[in-house]
Amino acid sequence: MSSLSSYLPPGDGLLPRWLLLVSTIALGNSIQAYTTLHYTQRLYSGPSPTTPSPSTTAPSTSPATPLQARTFGTWTLLQSLVRLYGAYHISDPLMYELVLWTYGIAFAHFVSEWLVFRTARWGIPLAFPVAISTGSLVWMVAQWGWYVQ
Fold first, then answer.
1. Is residue 49 part of a domain?
2. pLDDT at 63 over 80
3. In principle, which of 32, 93, 134, 137 could form an S-S bond with 103, CB 3.0–4.6 Å?
4. Mean pLDDT of the residues in the chain
């Protein structure tokens, strides 16, 4: 166990470990965005159908394309790396602010795709990134004085 703890971010509190966890999950999300279109199309499911389809094999209304999925994967990879670096440099005010920005941008992106552009529908695929970005943003703002001196 001590060998594992040597890889964990230094410092007190759970926030650095949370950033490491979210960064690791985002890395996996980036990989899947490059390898399959399925999950990206679940997230960006397109506008709600105006009439319910009786067929269970209705074609996807998702606007997601392979190019968009790879672009999303690249964007997610970049955010993952910023958060990973932030986990290990949590007391650096510039790094802390950059990590905050990643969550703010993610929140704005997902909410705008849902409410403004209507390319995402509320459900589990959208609820997770919205909850993670919102919760992390609130947590980081509340803990600024604890980590940044």
1. no
2. yes
3. 137
4. 92
Does 52 fall in a domain?
no
**Which DSSP string do the residues of the chain spell out, in sequence order?**
-HHHHTTSPPSSSSHHHHHHHHHHHHHHHHHHHHH-SHHHHHHS--SPPSS--S-TTPPP-----HHHHHHHHHHHHHHHHHHHHHHHSTT-HHHHHHHHHHHHHHHHHHHHHHHTS--S-SSHHHHHHHHHHHHHHHHHHHTHHHH--
Closest CA to 18 of 136, 105, 138, 97: 136
92 domain-assigned: yes
pTM of the model: 0.89
Segment 21-41, tens digit of pLDDT: 999 999 999 999 999 999 999
